[in-house]
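Q: Could you fold this chain for me?
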Amino acid sequence: MTLRDDFTEALKSAMRAGDAARVSAIRLINAKLKEADIAARPKGVAAIPDDEIHVMLRGMVKSRRESVALYEQGKRPELAAKEMAEIAVIESFLPQAMDQAAVEAAVAAAIAETGASSVKDMGKVMGLLKTRHGAALDMALANPVVRAKLAG
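A: Sure. Below is the predicted structure, expressed as structure tokens.
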């Protein structure tokens, strides 16, 4: 079962349950997915794969977190709450993220395996991490850990 199937089933369930907020959030995901599919067509790709869908979902979460911060600064808690609800729905489709200890262990293993010794080798380490851990590892969290270990 692909992520696309998960979206379809979740949308049907939310519609049956009358959960308007979840329906809205899943429709936003489907719209963003359609945009991504259309953008990939010139490359000869009819539909983006699940790993690219995970990247798209992480981007959606990131932009909503930024919106939450702005809404809270602007004293708009109702809009911040709406964004937080959308984040919860989007994150429900992402694999369980690695915690900080697991990220550090994965980085240490990747550095040892690639034989990286300086910041110049960062690309090799990041590439291995992405291949090995995919969507479970947030590369934005891994990047400073890799940089710190290679610089120190």
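A (continued): The two ends are 43 Å apart (CA to CA).
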